Amino acid sequence: MKINAILTLALASGALFVAHREEVSAYSLTGIHWNSSAVSYVVNPNFPGAAAGTPTQQVAEVTAGASAWHQQAQVPFDFNYTGTSSVASVAYDGVNSVHYSPTDGNGALAICYWWSVGGVALQFDIEYYAKDGLTNFVWARNPTASQFDIRSVAVHEFGHALGLDHSAVPSASMYPSVAAGSTALRTLDADDISGARAIYGVATPSLGSVFPVSGSAVGGTTVTVTGSNLTSNATTVTVGGIPAIDVTVLNSSTMTFVTPSAMTATGPVNVVLTCNGLSSTLVNGFRFEELTLGSALVRGAVVPVAFNAPQYPGAYYQAVISLSGGGDTLMGDYLDANDMRVLPVAVDELFMWNVLSPSPTWFTNFYGALNGAGHATGFFAVPTHPAVAGIGFRLALCVYEEGAPSGIALISNGVSATAQ
Description:
By secondary structure, this protein is mainly β. The chain contains 3 helices and 29 strands.
């Protein structure tokens, strides 16, 4: 059964004509291409029958087929779905459309028509058909052995819209026939990928930014990435060299991941995205924090504080706190553990507001030994007195090391919060 009658409708020298193309070895090109990185299209979800699904489900199948070329072939070109339409016939009207026609395809399951000038594509229409002679087609989202897959045919027809002709490779999505019940064409063959890249080249992924830019060293922070040419095919993300989890590509410019838990250090780390062997690096794109607050400083609340120094498992730690009326805090000049001005905690006036004074009942577990993973949890009981409201608290984590110049191996970046 033909997926695409080998018919193309093109515009040359101002005249419409029908051309017949012969199959050639491996992938073949129609000679058209788009002069942009993306084109929009609409879908009329008018397939009949329960197997085709609801209109929303039909749209999902068509759009999945269209996106296969950017996602799997990783070309710097994409088809962008912009909404539904009532278009139900082929016409050169400036709108790229996909629809079902209750007519006989004369041997074709579907046909992609396109218009072009000088090899530059102007428009395409994709039309699915109801039957071939006495054989009725049943269109389906999850086809049985007697039904045809909406998505597989979409992959093939959007391949024509991309600029690909039929391939002689039987496993290729651009092969000119498909069996009922098959969903194999949903996955592009190496031949399809080579053909698409022959027209448009390869899209190198690019990371633009991440949000949030920091999170706990214990992992579990959901991060949203913006960039370009993001694809879901063979995509991995590492954060500080450790694989991220739950990597999800939402579209070509947005993805999410969850930070890993197997960190061995804190501080800024690189975020590296790899798609099909092509990588993009966001240098120091994320920071694993040494100290994080579990909630806001609401007067009377007991706020959990996480201390994270995975590079110092089992080391002795002490949390410190300084107060501010809203301006700079006392701790600002004392963040370098190698600075000889950093005095031992026992005699440093910066640490007057630690677990020892003036009110031990404010703090729980603000000193002790980190566990084998370099983590500990303390609690800060925010005073209830009205005068506390508006006071800025800046907390930091100190980790001791006997060989360090000041006896302190690490002073974390301070975490600031204002009592409410």
